[in-house]
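hey so u asked for the seq, here:
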Amino acid sequence: MAGSKHINLICVIATVLAVLVTVLFMNGEALGIEVIVDADAESYTGSEVFTENDLDGAWDDSSATQITLNGTDAQVSGSGAYVLNGSVYISNAGRYVVSGTLTNGQIVVDAYQSSKVWVELAGADITCEEDAAFRVNQADKVFLTLKEGTVNSLTSGETYSDTALSDNAGGTIFSHDDLTINGSGTLTVTANYKHGIDANDSLVITGGNITVTAVDDGLHANDSVRLTNTELTIDAGDDAIHCDTEIIVESGEIQIPSCHEGLEAPQITVTGGNITIYSEDDGFNANGVGGSGFGFITGNEADGTVESIDSRISISGGNITIISENARDSDGLDSNGDIYISGGRVLVSLSNSGTNSAIDYASESGGVCVITGGTVIACGSYSMAEHFDSSSTQASALYNFSAGAEAGTTFALEDADGKVLLSWEVPCSFSSVNVSSPDMQVGENYTVVIGDQTEEITLTEVSASYGDVQSTGFGGGFNQGGGMQMRGPGGRGGFGNTGSTDSSADSTDTSRGTMPTPPELPEGMEGMTPPELPEGMEGMTPPELPEGMEEGERPELPALPGEASQMTADTTAATETASSGTALSSFGADTWMELGTSAVILILGIGIAMLYQRRR
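ran it, structure tokens below
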């Protein structure tokens, strides 16, 4: 009976504690409580490019489950894995070491959705004729580690089974979830059916000496491809590295002896590393749609959602070399949006044929190619050559010449004192050079050296164009003509036809700002309706709904981007001032709604308790 006398109090205390716990979980950070997160969880939305576990390729395997492959069978010593029909299945979270040879079977990770699984290849040679040699059916994240000092091999057959095809398996390594490859050992991946490594989610590689040979893509992922501290060699029938979202290269050695395209994704970011690409088509291809925020629409097959991705190439470090001997209609750096170069060294060599462009961006739809640092020598055909945008802070020069130069010709740029600032023996023939260096300054004189031919130029602006012939592509510079000086007697010979472009020609030939009709559309946008809609919104029903907001509030809604930023800052400042240091004032509407719901539950609980006590 004593317990029943205090049931009301017990219910009140329990409910109040439940409400407090709810508040703490929902607003822990606002109340100063440190939140512990799992950076390797699929649901994690932090900004880390590489986690601690991604970078840990030398974890302790002494207590791991040992899996020994024996031709057509395998033995398991430890828990969490079993053998079935010549394949090994890993069913639980944990750490596993695989060694030996499997002539026609798989390593299959099929664990819980929340499982983290570490698999170390310690001298493993696995071939699977009709499916992926290493497959991840389900896990939260899998770490495939290449043990130091070991040589490993994964091979798939030419034809996949109906079961594998129905699961959209596309790689010798195939994963439905996030996959990390790390360690310092050696791995050879041979894909006779499709891709070398295929990940539905993110693919991270942070170590190892990896060679991939694939009839389709070398690396293929949906969410992201992130590379650092590895050595990759890729021979691919299609893209060497392909992602539906973004590719990030932080460091390492990436050698691509053959491919159709080198790196392809809506967004490509390189902050370091050495990348050499021999391609049949584009070297880098940011394959979004349009510039200035038009974006690339990509779909997620798993949940049916879509998102808009801006198309962009960003280079802030590293050494990038792109060579395409048969590049008739291909480009070196190709972005359907913008290109930003702030560091590193970029060398591009395309053959002097067709309509290729060493640097190509969406200038016709508002895209920009901006250089603020780094070194660039980009050689190809003059027909579609584009210069850097005038908003660049580092000087550059686009030099087009009709005579052209043979493969193996040396290009150099000398300053007024004869000091060589840049030099490269260009692998392919070329008739255009786009060059930029931190040593180049507006107003200074320079000498362009191509083989035994020379030309003196004066940089008259941050993004200047020279030569005896102009580009015809959108955004390509219009050559100044008439302003170039040859060396005097005793110097090396000048280029032919240097006077063919007369400075007195019409504005189409001499003005950098004047372009053919298509490029003029983004400048004025005179005939376009969309910019007029936000002003009146005359024919649209939604703006008529908030009638009460016409007094002083409605004019603030269609704010410009700069004003929106200021409005956000002002609103944030006002909120912080109003809070007066009280954490509860930072609770959002959802929090107060849930607190209200908890209060209702509290009242109901007390009522039920009182009714129960009366009946007793």
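The two ends are 9 Å apart (CA to CA). The longest helix spans residues 589-615.
lmk if thats what u needed
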